[in-house]
């Protein structure tokens, strides 16, 4: 069995396929997989020469055989994949002369598309495409699945899940890193390893992109973090160009020398990629034949990751931002009910800017579809922030939905010591990977003593083992009880923290601010307790990073304990502040009108506050805000104010509006009922800057904008228009190819909502084009759209 | 003011107008942020050219009908086909700031476009010197979408260059390049020097465009 040999003895992959096919006449742009059927003998011949050279595992010629990349009028995918596996099996019969056991791997390469949010391919569609290939491969008799040359962590997750969930074959995965140790989509080595090991791949590593020499530092990095056997498949050097042709110039001898070094460092499965030939593999096998492999060592590192980077717990304390959570927050609840994604995302971005390392995400609210909302918020957050996320829910369906589509290895909040809960949560951790927070509470409630909580922690860690979940993937929350009702609460928590670290060696988290519930001036208690908790072994506090008191404790602690080398971070944050004096407030030299016209946010905020002392909110809107916006808008039309200025003013006005709205809400009043406008970037189009510009300006003029986003199918736009009885829809498209979707949307709107007006805009549009597709109005620029919207609603 | 700053300001629609200090500062800070986020990558190959008839160009597996490109390439024996991108992190920035700071989004967008042009210009200068050694002169680069050069060719161009694997450049269903700050282009190689130096912007028939290079 392959898995029994893996990691214990050195195994050999084959070398390049593409370069050999090109030398046999494959044209750039041609589909190599078609050769499985049209030039089967050539393919068998290549595989055979690799077996003869000493390869134990040969990859089928199916790199691009997935429904997204492979489109051929003559052959179906199943035929191609089946032939690919059969060719390799046939070659094994012909090429293995020494009776050794060899394996045929179903080779799975990327789809060639970028997944959302970077591109337009959905995670589910990528999964389905891979699933189809995986099933055909297993049916055809592949011995393992080798997912390779991946440069996007999200895509490799889709592929690994497809392999794991639809076949029983071993799964290997290798990625392309660049010379800086990054994927093309930005992920670093620890992030990739955290995710792949979480998904329980059998071996992982690096292929393509570079020669063996350049891979050495990457391998070194992989060895630091990886616990599973490691695969290394370099190119025959860096690609070079001669007469426009790509070639590689590391000769077999030299290649083999590097590969011996790579085995010595700790690789377990080696082979070659682009530019390597049977001669390279033969030399590599000869040179390393007598070498033994270093066993893979289990790394005791608690890591969570996003698609970009990993966060390691257990050293310097980390900050988990707690603000994405409706508990006790009226505005946040409203945002969830209104599906106000911007509000939620802003909470995330603010915490990131304030220094959070991980963001907790809790969207639980009665009457909302939590799984759907959780999934959406996770996806949206990952499109604007590269911080790892903590999926915080008691709804197991929501937890699974979020873990499945999360790009990386998430933190999961939480499991507890109740058997029923562990039975539900641990299978998810096993399936998708993740670091799970174990709450020290069980069927008997929260133990009153530190020892009691330590006991529950132990129970959780033991139960996890049954699923093959290592304690490095468990972090314990010993729970902070409010001292106003539990006088010994803080002492018990601190003692339990310390003991859990000492006894089990696991990382810990704590929701710090519970401690002061019911007390006056809570920040003082919270921030001091936070320091004490860190001193007692808290790995990550779940806190509000916008709280200056908490951050002061944090930065001070890190400086004091030498987690902050040369106090650099401390100095960066506090270097410009004098002790005892708070940061000076923005001066109010400008009037609100001036602040808006100049596009100064802080000044607009301040000036609004000042005005509110003297004037009624609605008066401020009508006498200051709107006239300022009008001045800027007219300037834009005349060509004396330009787009960035127009938008800076719009953003400043938005802040002024927010201040006014707060006051109105406190007084129980409300801004008058607004006119609703739908905005959407049409199907197929993913460039939504124009639409977002129009949105900001319409909101300034008190329109209630229903932003449906980008790449929006016509039905979604029309359904929303019908459901919400919309009078005006604004559509944007950037390219001629997507104006077609615009036309379709308009047609459908005319059928189902004939009284609704449509305004259009976008780079390729003009009045003639807009007329041709049947729009009511062409907005040459954002202000024109605002004026048109005003006219539409005035007519009513 | 350096060339790319001037170019970014042109993309922002300022035309010949002077830029105000506030915006200029924004432009500068956007360039600074982009210098961290952008990661320029390029891949190219040289292909033989054939012209079976007027207005039709064969370039590797590409069969292009385009009067504008034909004019650009007439007299060339070969052409460089290239794909380049500033990478996905630029898009992450654009998405991040589109929540609450649209002024920064449009400015980042303009700066990134200027940065990509600058990156290509620098690369092209090196290419020009290399090609000169081999006896070739280069023509201005010409991208799908310029004039009548159909963007439907993007798909084949990306496949011929294997851009998804090499530089992470892919296409959406609607033929849009992702990451968004990316280009593909053709650069003709001719054995004789010509004075054909019309660049992309000037070849466009939309003469009333606010962003037109003056």
Q: What fraction strand of chain A?
A: 5-15%
Mean pLDDT of chain A: 94
The structural domain count of chain A equals 4
Alpha-beta classification of chain B: alpha+beta
CATH architecture of the largest domain in chain A: Alpha-Beta Barrel
Q: How many DSSP E strands of chain A? A: 25
What is the molecular shape of chain A? globular
**Low-confidence stretches of chain A at least 5 residues in length (pLDDT < 50)?**
none
CATH level-two architecture of chain B: 3-Layer(aba) Sandwich
CA distance, first residue to last residue of chain A: 76 Å
- Could you say what the CATH topology of the largest domain in chain A is called? TIM Barrel
Q: Which bin fits the share of residues in helices of chain B?
A: 40-55%
- Please report the first level of CATH classification, the CATH class of chain B: Alpha Beta
Summary tags:
heterodimer; A: 796 residues; alpha/beta; TIM Barrel; Methyltransferase, Methionine Synthase (B12-binding Domains), Chain A, domain 1; 47% helix; globular; B: 214 residues; alpha+beta; NADH Oxidase; six-stranded antiparallel β-sheet; two-stranded antiparallel sheet; 8 helices
Describe this structure as you would to a colleague:
Chain A is an alpha/beta fold. Chain A folds into 4 domains: 2-289, TIM Barrel (Alpha-Beta Barrel), CATH 3.20.20.330; 303-575, Alpha-Beta Barrel (TIM Barrel), CATH 3.20.20; 585-668, Methionine synthase domain (Methyltransferase, Methionine Synthase (B12-binding Domains), Chain A, domain 1, Orthogonal Bundle), CATH 1.10.1240.10; 673-795, Cobalamin-binding domain (Rossmann fold). Chain A has 30 helices and 25 strands. In chain A, the strands form 5 sheets. Chain A has an 8-stranded parallel sheet with strand order 1-10-7-6-5-4-3-2. An 8-stranded parallel barrel of chain A has the order 13-14-15-16-17-18-19-20, surrounded by 7 helices. In chain A, strand 15 (389-392), helix 15 and strand 16 (411-416) form a beta-alpha-beta unit. Chain B has 214 residues and is of the alpha+beta class. Chain B has a single domain, classed as NADH Oxidase, CATH 3.40.109.40. Chain B contains 8 helices and 8 strands. In chain B, the strands form 2 sheets. Chain B has a 6-stranded antiparallel sheet with strand order 3-2-1-4-8-5, sandwiched between helices. A two-stranded antiparallel ribbon of chain B has the order 6-7. In chain B, strand 2 (56-59) and strand 3 form a beta hairpin. Chain B is globular and about 55 Å long. In chain B, 50% of the residues are buried. Classes of the chains: A alpha/beta (796), B alpha+beta (214). Chains A and B meet through helix 13, helix 25, helix 26 and helix 28 of A and helix 2, strand 1, helix 4, helix 5 and helix 6 of B.
